[in-house]
Write a structure and sequence with these properties.
- The complex is a heterodimer of chains A (377) and B (182).
- In chain A, 45% of the residues lie in helices and 13% in strands.
- Chain A is an alpha+beta fold.
- In chain A, the strands form three sheets. In chain A, strands 1-2-3 form a three-stranded antiparallel β-sheet.
- In chain A, 52% of the residues are buried.
- Chain B has 182 residues and is α/β, with parallel strands linked by helices.
- The longest helix of chain B has 14 residues.
- The chains are: A alpha+beta (377), B alpha/beta (182).
- Chains A and B meet through helix 1, strand 6, strand 7, strand 8 and helix 12 of A and strand 3 and helix 3 of B.
């Protein structure tokens, strides 16, 4: 019977004991995706993630637009981390066109992408908090996030979808007295997020809910090719800001946070530690940044790449984000592929949830730092 | 208005003096092992690209994992070349375990024949799956199957991932699938 079905479709056996639950796609606990969970009593037997409800064909659209008009739509997968999403694409186009970015722009890019990382992480932390039933943890990050959104608005002119990075630099320079304002806000922000420890990370209820939930061992984290906070929570020290040293990261002292436990608690703590590290990076970048100079190299109109291909990657809020661009001497890229952290981390979800209690599902799922729209692209 | 004369394709491994040393040593190991079966297409700083035929891809992947210590796949991309009647599948491989390889990305490319009227899963557009060698390609290969119609033999789970279950059009990332109004 199953032999006659086309590939991709299959008949499912119905069991008397095992119940199938569809979590999503509208359920707020799953984001815009469906988890097909099979449970035996309270325990998860298997989990089959079914993403694709917010698939927008970014890669196909990129083949029809030229290198510059691709900028605004390629940042759409994660609008609150839009600088980091666009970063590898800009680095790739710069290599294809042979453009060298001015020194000041490199530092401003680092500042923008670190601010964006904090904005993204705060948003994620708010959601993580509310799904664990901690409503203060929803309110605080959602409020403190505004500090950096205001800074990004001063830099870029837009609150969320900045389209700030362009091949050749950044769109515009920052306003006068920006640096003083930024440093003041970074200090206040750091003070605020340190307070999260008392209410959230040292909270015995959170600790008891998330410790030992969904443990990913070091070997499995490597074998499954996970990335970002999921990988670093399992004891692998891999941060592209340190390893690949793109743009100004080579001149900055980046400390990558690693924890060994590999459980949901460790996975939820790494992004918070990263935010504290981002504050240090921003301060150092402001100190070392050239105080004046050009921020953008003018490109020719409708620039063409040669017959070449590039693969560039950066560390985004959700891990390594790669962009593969194939160029065939046309103003439009021949193929753009975004290899995103969310999609790469999705593979360990069935693995982590197996044998877990159904009530632990939100704690494990959101600890992966998964963003459905990014995974679907 | 004189167009600069440019070669259509980069000739593989032409200027030995410019090549970065460490990357060259990896490329040499690959060349020594596979000889003519594998073409080293470029060696750039931190990036190497090799292309193998579809029959050798399993062997090459095994060698890359066991001898060169690349341990995971970062991305699997399909690129459609209708003019050459082929679909290229590109694996970007990286390493977490070997600190020397942390910034290296090895690109392993292979090609499958392309059919004008595709029937995904039942036509000749097939490649061996690398899932048993690099476990991390599992979802990437599923995406490649639905988006380009490349069937991966030996993949345990060739279902749709992102597209709707009832998608009955061409695989959307093929070049003959056109966006309306463009």
């Amino acid at each position: 019977m199953t032999a006659q079905l086309p590939p991709g479709l299959h008949m499912e056996k119905v069991d008397e004991r095992i119940m199938t639950l569809n979590v999503g796609p509208q359920h707020p606990g799953s984001g815009h995706m469906r988890l097909i969970v099979k449970i035996d009593g309270d325990f998860i037997v298997s989990c089959d993630p079914d993403p694709g409800y917010v698939h927008r064909g970014e890669e196909k659209m990129a083949e029809y637009r030229n290198y510059i008009t691709n900028i605004p739509h390629l940042e759409r997968p994660v609008i609150h981390d839009s600088c980091n999403v666009l970063y590898p694409y800009c680095l790739g186009v710069e290599e294809l066109l042979g453009v060298e970015v001015p020194e000041r722009a490199k530092y401003l890019r680092v500042i923008a992408s670190e601010l964006n990382r904090c904005v993204y992480t705060q948003y994620w932390l708010a959601i993580y908090g509310i799904f664990l039933g901690h409503s203060t943890m929803f309110m605080w990050p959602a409020g403190d996030r505004e500090l950096f959104i205001d800074m990004l608005e001063k830099m870029t002119g837009a609150r969320v979808t900045h389209a700030y990075f362009v091949p050749g630099g950044i769109r515009n320079d920052v306003p006068a007295n920006f640096e003083d304002m930024l440093l003041r806000r970074v200090d206040y922000f750091e003070k605020r997020i340190k307070e999260y420890a008392a209410i959230f990370y040292d909270n015995p209820i959170l600790i008891s809910r998330t410790t030992d939930a969904g443990v990913l061992s070091r070997e499995d984290a490597i074998r499954l090719g996970t990335t970002g906070s999921t990988l670093r929570a399992s004891g692998v020290d891999f941060d592209l800001r340190k390893k690949e040293k793109y743009d100004a990261y080579g001149e900055l002292d980046v400390h990558s946070n690693v924890l060994k436990a590999g459980d949901s608690y460790a996975r939820s703590k790494i992004p918070w530690l990263d935010m504290l590290e981002s504050c240090n990076i921003i301060r150092e970048a402001v100190r070392k940044m050239p105080k004046s100079g050009s921020v953008r190299v003018k490109l020719k109109p409708n620039p063409k790449g040669g017959d070449d291909e590039v693969y560039k990657r950066v560390e985004s809020g959700r891990g390594s984000l790669g962009c593969y661009i194939v160029s065939r001497s046309k103003p439009e890229p021949y193929r753009v592929k975004m290899s995103v952290g969310s999609f790469r981390n999705l593979i360990c979800l069935p693995y982590l949830l197996k044998g877990e209690k159904l009530g632990n599902m939100p704690a494990v799922y959101w600890s992966l730092n998964y963003w459905p729209v990014e995974a679907d692209r | 208005m004189s167009a600069p004369p440019q070669e259509a394709k980069p000739v593989p491994v032409e200027q030995p003096k410019d090549l970065p040393k460490f990357e060259k040593s990896i490329a040499d190991k690959l060349e020594a092992k596979f000889g003519k079966k594998a073409a080293i297409e470029f060696v750039k700083p931190t990036r190497i690209r090799i292309k193998v035929g579809k029959d050798d891809v399993l062997e090459a992947a095994k060698f890359i994992r066991d001898e060169l210590h690349f341990d995971h796949a970062e991305s699997v991309s399909g690129v459609d070349y209708p003019d050459q009647k082929e679909i290229e599948v590109v694996y970007h491989l990286g390493s977490y375990t070997d600190p020397e390889l942390a910034d290296q990305v090895l690109t392993l490319a292979t090609r499958a024949p392309r059919e004008e009227s595709p029937n995904p899963g039942n036509d000749s557009t097939r490649l061996p799956s690398l899932r048993d060698i690099f476990y991390s390609v599992e979802f990437h290969e599923r995406e490649c199957f639905e988006m380009l119609g490349v069937y991966f033999e030996g993949h345990p789970d060739n279902r749709r991932l992102l597209l709707p279950e009832d998608w009955a059009d061409l695989p959307p990332l093929r070049k003959d699938f056109k966006i309306k109004g463009r």
